[in-house]
Amino acid sequence: xxxxxxxxxxxxxxxxxxxxxxxxxxxxxxxxxxxxxxxxxxxxxxxxxxxxxxxxxxxxxxxxxxxxxxxxxxx
Length: 75
Prior knowledge:
This protein is α+β, with helices and mostly antiparallel strands. It has helices at residues 2-9, 29-38, 62-73, and strands spanning 12-18, 21-26, 44-45, 50-54.
């Protein structure tokens, strides 16, 4: 629920995993570009609907992955 609330602020519709990335599908490129700048360019925008967050090597558990995504999405 927390990830959904944080995602909605940035108009991110879905998040799924494609190792070694968390992939975000979004509706507003301008907002996602703002998020990228705020977080030190951690997020890779690949087209008008998708962005990739590289996950740290060895991060395999769902709690750790969720924490990494939360840290990106939190203001």
